[in-house]
Structures are given as structure tokens and as C-alpha cells.
Design brief:
The structure holds two protein chains of two kinds.
Chain A (H helix, E strand, L loop, with lengths): L1 E10 L2 E11 L4 E5 L6 H8 L7 E6 L2 E2 L7 H6 L1 E4 L11 H11 L5 H14 L15 H13 L5 E5 L7 H16 L4 E4 L3 H7 L2 E6 L2 E7 H5 L5 H11 L2
Parallel strand pairs in A: 3-8, 3-9, 6-7, 7-8
Antiparallel strand pairs in A: 1-2, 1-4, 4-5, 9-10
Helix pairs in contact in A: 3-4, 3-5, 4-5, 5-6
Chain B lengths: L14 H35 L3 H15 L3 H15 L2 H10 L3 H29 L1 H9 L4 H16 L1 H14 L11 H12 L2 H29 L10
The chains are: A alpha/beta, B mainly alpha.
Chain lengths: 242, 238
Amino acid sequence: MIEINHASKWYGDFQVLNDCTTRVDKGEVVVICGPSGSGKSTLIKCVNGLESIGSGDISVDGSKVNGRKTNLNQLRSRIGMVFQSFELFPHMSVLDNVMLGQLKVLKRSTDEAEQRAQALLLQVGLADHAYKYPAQLSGGQQQRVAIARGLAMDPIAMLFDEPTSALDPEMINDVLDVMVDLAQDGMTMMVVTHEMGFAQKVADRIVFMDEGRIVEDSPKDEFFKAQGSERAKEFLSKILTH
Amino acid sequence: MNYNWDWGILFREPYFDWLVEGLMWTVSLSLLAWIIAFSLGSILGIMRTCSSRPLQLIATAYVELFRNIPLLVQLFLWYFVFPELLPDDAGRWVKREMPMPALTTAIIALGLYTASRVCEQVRSGIAAVGPGQRNAGKAIGMNEWQVYRYILLPNAFRIIIPPLTSEFLTIFKNSSLALTIGVVELTAMTRQIEEYTFQGFEAFTAATLIYSVVTFTVMLLMRIVERRVRIPGMISTN
């Protein structure tokens, strides 16, 4: 579904991604973790072309993200993305946020878009908040709306860029629950997160990054048994002791 | 000081009519110039922030050119120099044959100058909305124009209502410069009253009050607009 082959990226002289190769198969949940500045967010943003890569290539469902012939807008409309800072559209009601892409990109009718939006808001537990504005919701609620907004496009895969990092501890579980449900329903997911509990529960594979490289890419059980690299062990020991 | 105060002069014919007529010219000149400034400025603001490098450069060049030449000089350039650069027929048309040459030139000059300032306001508004919103729009598959139309502009314009209001007040006050190329707007009418009656104090007091009443009204209206378009749940600044 998502294939990343030898992707490298530079900001000036600084190399943010260094020869990254990995893949996410259909229905698979891959968690990407690693210390700050290791290139996790950059990598996931390259998957839907919000960032461009310097060399190598990335393809989603057979289309090259960095290819000249690819209609990037159309490709993006098939990949949902959830951001660390939610990025709901503040001037629109929750319902309109979930309907916008359906109306303007998928050209669905208003009725159809609204039905789909209401159903998704119900799914993420926010049916009662459809007519509120994002600023009237808590962070956790906003992030669940953002997930609904992504799902409204009927995506073939969902990308999550640290979806719980900006949330109060109490809100985190509400968001993770929605994501666990999604994973169990068979959604293809690529998730940048530090939530190792989530990873343990639903991830198929864990990718560990450091200094722009993929240091380890292994099935969940192997990763948590810490049979892999020293760097990953060190990282795990730091985040799991609290 | 030996001065014969006569406030009644302001309400006597034809001076009262002159003031009213002057105000009409000032208001029409400002509104028409604002239409140019606002539309062109918004387009330039979009160009300055869009992904196309050539469009960015064109808009930046425009802003640097128009913002850095004094408005009075621009008025003179458009009125006295520009027609001379045109072929004879076109030059004559611009100078004399087009409807109300002085007023038209003033509207265009003021509009083009203020567009460069509006462009900068729009650009800063779009920057304030932030790259995250742009990415969120792109991520659901919207094209660049849709991202501007449905996400960046509605938020940016809300943010820049206060600076845009002062930009409009500036255009209104700058319109008095049009008297230098012969547009008989409010300030010109006031001077004319002074020349006919020697009641300069009364005439300029009247002009001052009229300018202030208009600017206060605009400010109040914009406050109401700002409140109307306020997004529920957002903290208001006034």
C-alpha cells in the first residue's frame, strides 16, 4: 500500500532523512517512534507529499508521490491525515469541517455528505457536538473530529502525526480508543507516536528512527522484547520506566 | 486678532452646497479607489503567498514599487507624465477626453498605491493563519485555489479587519491629495469657501468635523462587522 524506497531529504546541508526504506501493507498498522528530531514527522509528511523528498521514491497504492504524472491532490484525497495540532478549520462548525472535503473534492451532494459526516461523528463519539465550532471543543474532541474529517474521504490509508502529543493526559485515551477501533476494523495506518501502549495493543510493526535513519523495523513482539538495536533499547528504557 | 466670526456662513448658499458636494466627491473617490485597492491588494496578497515563484516575484515587485514612491509623486506621475508616454491619441484621451480625467486619474493612482498596502495586510493575515491550516486543506485533497477560497482567506480576512479598517481610513484621508491635480473634493471646496469669504476658521473647522464624523462612522460599522463575523468560542479582542 505504502512503499518508501531509499528516501532521503535535506534541509540545506542538514540531512533529515537518510536512506529510509520501509513499507506498510494493506490493513497493517505501523508505528513509527524515536526521539525528537529523528525525522518521524518529516517521513510521514512525505507520504502524502506535504513535504518533498530529495532522492529515492515513495509510492502509495501504486502511484508515485513524487512522480511528475501523479495528480497529487487526487492522491491526497485518498489518504487521511491527522495532525499533532488538530488543524480543524476554525471558522466552520464541526459538521462543516467533516463535510468540506466531501463537497469540494469528492463532489458529493450536501445530503450525502451530511449523512456520512453525522455517521462518522457518531462513530468518534461526538454526534452531540456537530453544530459547535472547534474552539468550543476540548483538544481530545477536536482531534476526534479531525479523525472523522480524514475518514470522511473514505481513505485507503490513514496517517497520524503525533495525534496525542498536544493533549492533556485525560484526553489521550479518548483519541487512542478511536484509533484502536479503526485499527481493529482493518484500516491501513501509519502512526507517529510515543504511545507505546497503543503500539503494543494494535501495531503490527514498529519502525524506530534516529537521526534521520530507520534504525530498526521489526514486528511488534520482537521490538518489545528488545532484541534489536542498542539505540532502540536505550530509547525504550527511557520512555517505559515512568 | 481681529476676526469676524460668522458660523452662519457654513449654512448659507452656495457654501453649504459646496461642502456637501465636496463630501460627495471625497466619498466617491475613496470608495472607488478602495474597490481597486481591496480587489487588487487581495489578489497580490494571494500571489505573494502562493506556491508559484514567478507570481510571488511579480507581487513583491509591485509592492516594492508602489509602496516606496510617495503618493503625491505617484499622483503627479499618473496625471502629468504618464499621458506623455502614450501614443498621441491615447495620451490626449487620458488627459482630456476620458470622463472626468482628474477624478479618474486620482481614483486609479490612489487605488494602485493602496493596493500595495492592502497586499501586505492580506499577506500577514495569511501568514497568521499558518502553514498547518494550509497543510490540513491540502491533506484532504483540495487544490491550492480551494485551500485559499475555503480556508486561508476566510480566516485571514477576519484577522485583518482592524488593519484593513485603518487602511480604508487612510485612503479616505489621502483622497484630499487629489486636490493637487484639480479634483474639487472636500478639502478643495473648503479652501474655495475660504477664498470667497475669508472665513477660513469656520470652513476648516467644518471640514475637520466632517472628516471625523465619517471616520468615526466607518470605525463603528467595522466594529459591528467584526462582531458579526466573530467565530464562536474564539476570544474576542474588543
